[in-house]
Design goal:
heterodimer; A: mainly beta; five-stranded antiparallel beta sheet; 10 strands; globular; B: mainly beta; seven-stranded mixed beta sheet; four-stranded antiparallel beta sheet; 56% strand
Chain lengths: 109, 114
């Protein structure tokens, strides 16, 4: 099955800083989503982004499917951005998301 | 509140107990999922239901038994669990199991097996 890597594993930022999270995957994908899990365990769907670029407020995501990676940009980070960010592709042969190991983000006031 | 509600939020059970986790969605979705999230491990898909039919069972031990009586409700029945089954159990739903449109998670049940 598809292999998913995320980097960095941990990231500490000062409030107001920008960051880029990376997701590499081993196979072609027909769906890819980014999720945020807050410190209380709630997972929120951020982007559906199998290819191209999307923006939603301070967050944006880009997937380059031909090069098998996706990036999540967080600008002007806030303490509420803290938590774990998961990349989850679905490969062209599978039916379900395969979650990466996540990037744990801590934004300090 | 995401539209997917899980109860209870926390559960402590002995290895000989029988308990059930409940998930309810009010989004009109046709697919529902159970995931297990253990410390230091990626989310693991356990079961997938589409239109109340089980479509995937990822080699989950038989001590976990899912039930989907209708498209709005999903249960996970637990019996004779082991301490390594302690984890956060997450339920999710989506419009359908092919496109995963509108994928939404519940808040999870944190299970401790003693």
């Amino acid at each position: 099955g598809i292999q998913v890597e995320q980097s960095p594993p941990d990231l500490i930022l000062q409030e107001g800083a920008n960051s880029t999270l990376r997701c590499n995957f081993s196979d072609s994908v027909n769906n890819l989503q980014w999720f945020h899990q807050n410190p209380w365990g709630q997972l929120i769907n951020l982007f559906y982004i199998p290819s191209g670029t999307k923006q939603n407020g301070r967050l944006s995501a880009t997937t380059v499917a031909t090069e098998r990676y996706s990036l999540l940009y967080i600008s002007s980070s806030q303490t509420t951005d803290s938590g774990v960010y998961f990349c989850a592709p679905v490969d062209n042969y599978g039916q379900n998301f395969v979650f990466g190991p996540g990037t744990r983000l801590s934004v300090l006031p | 509140e995401t539209g997917v509600t899980q109860t209870p939020r926390h559960l402590v059970m002995g290895m000989t107990n029988k308990k059930s986790l409940k998930c309810e969605q009010h989004l009109g979705h046709n697919a529902m999922y159970w995931y297990k999230q253990s410390a230091k491990k990626p989310l693991e898909l356990m079961f997938v239901y589409s239109l109340e039919e089980r479509v995937e069972n990822n080699s989950v031990p038989s001590r976990f038994s899912p039930e989907c009586p209708n498209s709005s409700h999903l249960f996970l029945h637990l019996h004779t669990l082991q301490p390594e089954d302690s984890a956060l159990y997450l339920c999710a739903s989506s419009q359908d199991s092919d496109t995963h449109y509108g994928y939404t998670f519940g808040s999870g049940t944190r299970l401790t097996v003693v």
